[in-house]
């Protein structure tokens, strides 16, 4: 499972604001910490200076972009033992009014929950204006890479494929106010692959389709519509390259297709063909992600051909990553209902990673879960505890149950606490993570074990030889201490922070944990004051 909020301190403050039971929906992905999970990003393309420039210029306007949420599907996995422990972030302001089980943006959009009005206004003050959408503003550069836009456009017709590739990359760096002018020429250059005996150089094709995708996203940011003729030609190119003989070309085409907007739905039959591609699992995974993003029509109804294919891949694909992706798609398109395939996969899928993904998805669906689905899921999860053998999965099963119950209970927190004593550091890290996510309600069950882990970081006063504990476990204990509001940990953290013989990483994170406690204290004091002010009648 992944952090809905990657910042450690902010995640803790989500729990402070009365949302202490939100566990899997907004937590670290157990896949990231589990053994033998090293799924690298599918295919890495070289990043150029031009693309970096465009990214920097456009990052501040992200809210106005309304980009498709495909990024929510992309997920990295790491081995808990081989990866570096996450460093505790520095000082940040506490977040407010955010649910610990908040569903992801894609799931929230799928549920289409409408805000309810809270009664009639009683004041005579003029109504406040609704917040205006951020105005898009982009300063177009006069040159990129030492050349003007027109100079790069001329190079797009060069006989040297290297020059054409460079031109396709650099024109996108001129941003949404200019790059769209390159759309017709890029289409012309890519169409040459259909007619020239030797086709178009692979690197030109790949960077060309990526340039088209970038331009479409930039036009969306600037709220520009592509010329109808170019739009149809671009869509035809995407459909054509879905069947390219090179894997990288098919992957980049699949990744970019949703950027074309509603017209992309016309390619659903072609994308479905890619979900069974035997050349590599990466094509199947990307196809399922794209299929999920383009499945809904204008009324939000998924294409009838999509769900059966997702079910098929979730059940029968030999790649666990593909099965995970299919289950994600089913959850997104079924929300707020819980698709039965999730429960089925929890019981029968042989891959630990897939079963962990099921728990993650159940946590994300919890917010808007229907009562019958909640009861069924709780029944299945409790039954699953008796058959599951993986300790990390057991930790997260207990956590998911508490999420669906919306409370921390001794029946499910004590088993988690027991895993703090496990021999495997990865298991201890996950147990401490779950404890911290239980919030202040978990303190009564876990304070002793959390403080014991922190005391292990202190050298004996008699000067005997001392070996510092696993830093992953130590940092997880620091996070858990703040998460459960264990201010009793402050003296121990101060000693760790002052220990000049301690590993630098441990010392630094102890200091940041102390900073987090200061923020937590200030936040709680402010909250108490506000609560008192509300109770005190005005004179």
From the N-terminal CA to the C-terminal CA, the straight-line distance is: 51 Å
Q: Which structural category fits the helices and strands? A: mainly alpha
Total of helices: 25
Percentage of β-strand residues: under 5%
| Shape assignment | globular
Order of helices and strands: HHHHHHHHHHHHHHHHHHHHHHHHH
Low confidence ranges: 1-128
The total count of strands amounts to 0
| Mean of residue pLDDT values | 80
Quick one: biggest sheet? none
Radius of gyration: 26 Å
Helix content: 55-70%
Task: Give a written overview of the molecule.
The two termini are 51 Å apart. Helix 7 (161-171) packs parallel to helix 9. The radius of gyration is 26 Å and the shape is globular. Helices cover 55% and strands 0% of the residues. The longest helix is centred in the C-terminal third of the chain and has 32 residues, at 504-535. It has 25 helices and no strands. With 539 residues, it is mainly α.
Fold topology:
Elements lengths: L7 H9 L13 H4 L15 H11 L2 H4 L39 H7 L37 H7 L5 H11 L11 H13 L6 H20 L6 H14 L5 H10 L11 H7 L6 H14 L11 H11 L3 H15 L5 H9 L3 H14 L5 H14 L6 H15 L4 H9 L6 H13 L5 H13 L15 H13 L6 H9 L5 H32 L4
Helix pairs in contact: 5-15, 6-7, 7-9, 8-9, 8-10, 9-11, 11-13, 12-13, 13-15, 14-15, 15-17, 16-17, 17-19, 18-19, 19-20, 19-21, 20-21, 21-23, 22-23, 23-25, 24-25
Task: Please tag this protein with its features.
mainly alpha, 55% helix, 0% strand
Task: Summarize, please.
This protein is mostly helical. Helices cover 55% and strands 0% of the residues.
């Amino acid at each position: 499972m992944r952090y809905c909020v990657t910042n450690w301190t902010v995640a803790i403050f989500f729990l402070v604001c009365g949302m202490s039971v939100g566990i899997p929906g907004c937590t670290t992905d157990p896949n990231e910490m589990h053994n033998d999970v090293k799924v690298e990003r599918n295919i890495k393309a070289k990043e150029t200076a031009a693309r970096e420039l465009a990214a920097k210029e456009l990052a501040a306007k992200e809210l106005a972009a309304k980009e498709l949420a495909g990024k929510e599907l992309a997920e990295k996995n790491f081995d808990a033992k081989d990866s570096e422990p996450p460093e505790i972030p520095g000082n940040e302001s506490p977040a407010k009014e955010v649910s610990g089980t908040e569903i992801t943006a894609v799931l929230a959009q799928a549920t289409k929950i409408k805000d309810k009005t809270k009664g009639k206004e009683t004041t005579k003050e003029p109504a406040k204006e609704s917040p205006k959408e951020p105005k898009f503003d982009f300063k177009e550069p006069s040159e990129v890479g030492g050349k003007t836009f027109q100079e790069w456009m001329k190079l797009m017709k060069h006989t040297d494929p290297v020059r054409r590739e460079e031109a396709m990359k650099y024109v996108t760096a001129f941003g949404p106010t200019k790059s769209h002018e390159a759309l017709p020429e890029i289409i012309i250059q890519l169409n040459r692959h259909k007619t020239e005996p030797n086709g178009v150089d692979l690197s030109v094709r790949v960077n060309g389709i990526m340039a088209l995708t970038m331009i479409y996203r930039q036009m969306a940011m600037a709220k520009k519509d592509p010329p109808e003729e170019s739009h149809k030609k671009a869509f035809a190119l995407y459909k054509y390259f879905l069947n390219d003989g090179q894997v990288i070309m098919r992957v980049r085409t699949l990744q970019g297709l949703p950027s074309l907007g509603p017209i992309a739905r016309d390619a659903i039959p072609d994308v479905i063909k890619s979900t069974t591609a035997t050349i590599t699992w990466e094509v199947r995974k990307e196809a399922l992600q794209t299929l999920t993003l383009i499945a809904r029509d204008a009324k939000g109804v998924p294409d009838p051909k999509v769900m059966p294919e997702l079910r098929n891949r979730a059940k029968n694909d030999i790649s666990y990553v593909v099965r995970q992706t299919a289950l994600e798609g089913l959850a997104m398109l079924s929300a707020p209902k819980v698709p039965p395939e999730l429960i089925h996969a929890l019981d029968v899928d042989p891959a630990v990673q897939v079963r962990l993904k099921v728990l993650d998805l159940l946590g994300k669906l919890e917010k808007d879960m229907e009562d019958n689905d909640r009861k069924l899921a709780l029944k299945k999860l409790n039954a699953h505890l008796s058959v599951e053998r993986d300790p990390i999965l057991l930790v997260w099963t207990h956590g998911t149950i508490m999420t669906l119950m919306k409370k921390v209970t001794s029946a499910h927190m004590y088993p988690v606490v027991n895993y703090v004593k496990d021999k495997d550091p990865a298991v201890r890290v996950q147990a401490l993570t779950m404890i911290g996510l239980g919030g202040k309600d978990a303190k009564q069950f876990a304070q002793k074990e959390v403080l014991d882990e922190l005391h292990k970081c202190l050298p004996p006063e008699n000067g005997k030889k001392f070996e510092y504990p696993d830093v992953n476990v130590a940092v997880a204990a620091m996070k858990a201490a703040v998460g459960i509001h264990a201010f009793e940990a402050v003296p121990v953290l101060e000693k760790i922070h002052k220990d000049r013989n301690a590993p630098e990483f441990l010392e630094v994170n102890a200091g940041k944990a102390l900073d987090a406690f200061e923020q937590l204290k200030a936040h709680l004091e402010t909250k108490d004051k506000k609560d008192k002010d509300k109770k005190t009648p005005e004179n």
